[in-house]
Amino acid sequence: MNDLFDAFWRAAGYCLHPRVILWSLLPLVVGGGAVALLGWAYWESTVATVRGALEEWELVAAMLQWLESIGANQLRTLMAPMIVVALSVPVVVVATLLLVALLVTPAVVRMVAARRFPTLEWRHGTPWWQGVLWALACTAAALLALVLSIPLWFVPPLVLVLPPLIWGWLTCRVFAVDALAAHATAPERRFVLRNRRWSLLTMGVVCGYLGALPSLLWAASAAALIFAPLLVVLSVWMYTLVFAFAACWFAHFTLAELQRLRDAQTPVLSVLPSSFATDPSA
How buried is residue 102: exposed, middle or buried, by Cβ count under 10 Å (0-12/13-18/19+)? Predict the structure, then answer.
């Protein structure tokens, strides 16, 4: 637990470093620019399409008429934008996470290794394409779990638990592997992930709850939906900051574990045949 908190405070300090701030702007420019462009081009047409689809369903149309009869015209007007936002936010979260993992994490890992672990050898146990496939597979699994868990969100306590847990699991699986990709061999990576799996999952869940903070932008007021395209871009910036912090946190924690593993192996490897030195699992 001390190692977890030590890595946490180091990551918080690194997030204030000018280089980390500059790196975090790249996903913001790419993701935020794409969201702004899509919002400008398709927001009104998408809302109109969703509103038309809702009115074609008899049950929904009856509910909308009931809302109008009790004077809740505002809720009827906001229903379609709320649905568009609810469907857009998970896509924005996933896209931001993948952009940070691809554009920010490698630079953060190099910085942490150079400043804190200069003697840690690079063994390149995970090729870049394998890391990309792993991230995409974990993302698909998380989105599937998110969709399957939607009926449980109507149980009040679970809506505050399930989405952060799913996002936390995804954050843990993606950033832990990316943080070890350049330095650890495959056996070393598996050992660290297995040996510290609960600490890594705890870190992921904490980041999952931090990632839920941008949702408060939408909960502040229903009038926020008027500025939905702008707020989605602002959400991308907030998600980028959260995931940049997560990249720093996982880099500090996993590289420290890898350094500790190799330090523990050094006395043993010194008396073994040289063929054993390249395979820690031996």
Answer: middle
- Rounding to the nearest 10 degrees, give the CA dihedral for residues 141, 142, 143, 145: 90
Q: Which residues of the chain carry a pLDDT beneath 50?
A: 268-278, 280-282
Burial class, 194, CB count within 10 angstroms (exposed 0-12 / middle 13-18 / buried 19+): exposed
pLDDT per residue as tens digits for the range 118-151: 999 998 888 888 888 999 999 999 999 988 988 8
Q: Which residues, 6+ apart, have CB-to-CB distance to 165 below 8 Å?
A: 205, 208
Name the packing angle between helices 197-211 and 228-269 (round to 10°). 170
Q: Output the pLDDT for position 233.
A: 75
Distance of CA 249 to the CA centre of its chain: 13
- Return the pLDDT at 193: 94
Closest of 263, 258, 99, 264 to residue 180, by C-alpha: 258
Alpha-carbon torsion 212, 214, 217, 220, what sign?
A: positive
Cα separation of 237 and 31, whole Å?
A: 9
User: What pLDDT score does 232 carry?
Assistant: 74
Q: d(Cα 77, Cα 167) in Å, to the nearest integer?
A: 30
Nearest C-alpha neighbor of 217 from the set 234, 229, 196: 234
